[in-house]
Amino acid sequence: MKNSALAHHRPQWKTHIGFLLAAVGSAIGLGNIWRFSYLCYKNGGGAFLVPYITALFIVGIPLMILEIGLGHKMRGSAPASFASVSRKWEWLGWWQVIFVMFGIVLYYSVVISWCLSFLFFSFNLSWGQDPNAFFFKKFLMVSKGPFNIGDVRTGIIFSLLLVWFLNWLIVFKGVQKGLERANKIFMPLLFILIAIIVFWGFKLPGAREGILVYLRPDFTRLMDVRVWMDAFSQIFFTLSLGFGIMIAYASYLPVKSEIVRDSLIISGVNCLFSLFVGLGVFAVLGYMAHTTSVPISSVVSESIGLAFIAFPKAISLLPAFSRIFGVLFFGSLVIAGLSSSVSIIEAFTSGIVDKFHYSRKAVVSSLVVCGFLGSVIFVTQAGLYWLDIVDHFLTQYGLVIAAIFESIILGWIYKSNRLRQHINHYSSWRLRGWWDICIKVAAPLALTVILVSSLVEELSCAYGGYSRLALVLIGRDWLIYTLFFAILVASHHWKIDPRERMLS
Ligand code: TRP
User: Fold this and answer.
1) pLDDT band at residue 317 using 50, 70 and 90 as cut-offs
2) Among 42, 118, 168, 218, which one has the highest count of C-beta atoms within 10 angstroms of its own C-beta?
3) Cα of 339 to ligand 1 centre, how many Å?
4) Residue 436 φ/ψ, nearest 5 degrees
5) Using CA atoms, how far apart are residues 484 and 81, in angstroms rounded to an integer?
6) pLDDT per residue over 88-110, tens digit each?
7) Which pLDDT score, from 0 to 100, does residue 238 have?
């Protein structure tokens, strides 16, 4: 009785495509646009697809099925789902949503706000002849080091406010009217914008050479272990695994759901999207190398360097409609980023609502205010350093450690075949024993190799040339504080046993 009453109150996706688009929206983020193609270029071009697709099938899709299956069975957010497995493991669910919400999203929104500012700058190509100096000296006014905080960059604060307002608006309106509706607009729009960018790119002189550099396979690179590690870590970051997001999104699925098929669709669309965007990115880089007569290797870059320096430079060089191109490019980044950031705000909110039964609207509103305030440190003149350090620790260690625990707890302690039976009960596409092997052995093994080698590298040389003190105080301690809060929240008692919401 209680079970059905609770299930009844749980929000649900209105349409199946709405769920798929929201999950794809979470998975497709800045990483797909500014990182994937660079990884390909650096790691053997087309040959990189071998480790990438291997990682997709060995850990990506199996973990996606695991998270969606867990959320579907437990009908709860990550904390509620792990608490249903055992109260002992509830902290893990909290830790995931806390360090992503009070870590990754804080700087992710700042980056979205830079994209938003650059969208406006595109109207008059404000970065001028030297986008590098414009970005670091004029726009960010980067200070000397992480402890030279300097002033808050007021210009950026305005776009940051807008980003958090949009985050708030979308999540506040709830699952159907907010997230589902927003993603139903965002995702098709993003696909159209990117398609225009790619086809526009194809037409530019030099595009062919650029794309060849991106995809020309060099199979000898496959002997390098780092290439494989890059593939594995990219896969689970790009699919938003280990964030607790897919668990929450899946908890809003109807009982009759195709878990395996949906996981394949979400993962497949995400990876094809990355591959496709790469064509546009390298076509434009090829064009830039062609017009400035420099080798393509000297114009290639990733992440911040690609979006805020290389692309602005290329946009200024375009023969026609350069401003429109800028708006399309930065608009795509904003949309891709927002659809990811709202997903974790939802995942955190649903954790709090599941446990404390506060009003959803109050939770979202307070969360967004805290989120905005927390982001401010990344808008100071030392923001770029903080962003770099926090990102390094949270993604290289936080996510990896959380995903190792997740696969071990669900694979060995809860037992993956229990979840497999649940999934097979509802899915027409059946999972077999290989899935258990992926969850119990392949995933933890691959993740442990990544973790250990990051640690070895960390200890042998300080990341990014920062002082040890900065790395410890900003990076390591960020992880420790979030873990501490996770344990604190997890130790609070549940008003209603989380297992009551479970599907038997
Ligand atoms: N998958 C996204 C990417 O490739 C990252 C991401 C997903 C994310 N969900 C998020 C980042 C929530 C921050 C918050 O870029």
Assistant:
1) very high
2) 118
3) 9
4) -60, -40
5) 20
6) 999 999 999 999 999 999 999 99
7) 95
Question: pLDDT band at residue 280, thresholds of 50, 70 and 90?
Answer: very high
Q: Looking at ligand 1, which atom is closest to the CA of residue 337?
A: 15
Average predicted confidence (pLDDT) for the chain: 95
What's the rounded Cα separation, in Å, for the pair 283 and 287? 6
How remote is the CA of residue 48 from the centroid of ligand 1, in Å? 22
CA of 398 to the centre of ligand 1 (A): 14
CATH of residue 38's domain is: 1.20.1740.10
Mutating to test ligand 1, I would choose from 30, 107, 340, 343 the residue with most ligand atoms within 8 A of its C-beta, which is 340
Q: How far is the CA of 344 from the centre of ligand 1 (A)?
A: 8
Q: What pLDDT does 468 receive?
A: 94
Distance in angstroms (rounded) separating the CA atoms of residues 157 and 177: 28
Q: Are 220 and 355 in contact (CB under 8 A)?
A: no
Query: Domain total for the chain?
Result: 1
Domain of residue 234: give its range: 4-501
pLDDT digits (tens, 9 = 90+) for 18-30: 999 999 999 999 9
Ligand 1: centre distance to CA 274 (Å): 13
Q: Which residues line ligand 1 (CB under 6 A)?
A: 26-27, 29-32, 100, 104-105, 108, 237-238, 240, 243, 245, 340-341, 343-344
> What does the pLDDT average to over 166-182?
97
Task: Tell me, in angstroms, the distance from the centre of ligand 1 to residue 237's CA.
Answer: 7
Say how far apart CA 28 and CA 366 lie, in whole Å: 26
How does residue 502 score in pLDDT terms, banded at 50, 70 and 90?
confident
Nearest CA to ligand 1 atom 8: 340
